[in-house]
Amino acid sequence: MAREKDKKKVRTYPANTEAERSVLGAFMIDPSAVNENISQLSADDFSTAPNKAIFEAMRDLFTESHPIDLVSVADKMRLKGTLADAGDVPYISGIASSIPSAAGCKYYVEILKRDGLLRKLLEASKDISEDVYTSEDGNESLSYAQQRILQVTQATGQSSLVRAGAVADEVIREIEEHHANPDSAVGLLTGFSNVDHILHGLQRSDLMILAARPGVGKTAFALNIATNIARRDPEKNILIFTLEMANGQLVRRMLCSLTGIENDSISRSNLEMQEFVKLNQARQALWKSHIYIDQTAMQTPGDILAKCRRFMIENNTDIDLIIIDYMQLMSCPGKESRQQEVAEISRSMKLLAKEINVPVIVLSQLSRNAEMKSEKPQLHDLRDSGSIEQDADIVTFLYKEKGQDEDNTLIEFIVAKFRNGKTGSLAFEWHGSTFRFVPTENERLQHIKKAQVKSADGGEKKGEDEGGGEA
Question: Does residue 204 share a domain with residue 146?
Answer without folding.
Answer: no
